[in-house]
Amino acid sequence: MRYIIIALFICYSLSGFSQRGEKEWFLSAGLNAINSQGTKSPLNGIGDWANGLPFSVAGELMWDSGLAVEQSITFNKFAEGDEIDGQLLTEDYTYTSFDSHVKYYFGNKIFPNSTWVDFYANAGVGFFSIENTNVSFNIGGGILFWLNRRETLGIRAQVIGKMALDHAQSGLDNNHFQTHIQAFIAL
């Protein structure tokens, strides 16, 4: 059942990407780190982040209203000897996630005269795998620093909390936080 929900959500997201009009397309690529300690806080045990293969890329369609939809894919790696939820790993694990988010940019509401910084909140669903697979509800936010006046090139930093749907019996595929720093480019 959850695979059907994932497939429907991804199809819905991609159909939103295919519509043209008064919208802007953006591509982002960069690095990520995962905090999967089971502490429900991204700040506890700050030295236990996974960043073995920290690549992430996303496509975003943004409207003038401040709403946007984003589809992203993320890769990372937990190495032998790392800890996930207090469990010492005896082998390497690859982390892969596919996330679909709805975003709202509200920086111009806080700083109406500023064109170099923007803030956003995002929420959506994800499909991720470490040892098995799981579905997550995602919520987070970020900051986008524009590097030019036309707002076509920027750097963004974001944090996403991923709450696994089946976290009670999911083993390693559990709740976690993911941080990103990415280049943000208009297409």
Textual characterization of the structure:
This protein is mainly beta and 187 residues long. The chain is built from two helices and ten strands; from the N terminus they run αββββββαββββ. It has helices at 2-17, 107-110; strands at 23-35, 55-63, 67-78, 83-84, 87-88, 93-105, 117-129, 133-146, 153-164, 176-186. The strands form two sheets. It has an eight-stranded antiparallel barrel with strand order 1-2-3-6-7-8-9-10. The chain has a two-stranded antiparallel ribbon with strand order 4-5.
**Which stretches of 5+ consecutive residues score pLDDT under 50?**
16-21
Strand elements, count: 10
Largest sheet: 8 strands, antiparallel, barrel
Oligomer: single chain
Distance between the termini: 36 Å
- Count of helix runs: 2
The pLDDT mean sits at: 84
Strand content: over 45%
The secondary structure category is: mainly beta
* Proportion of helical residues: 10-25%
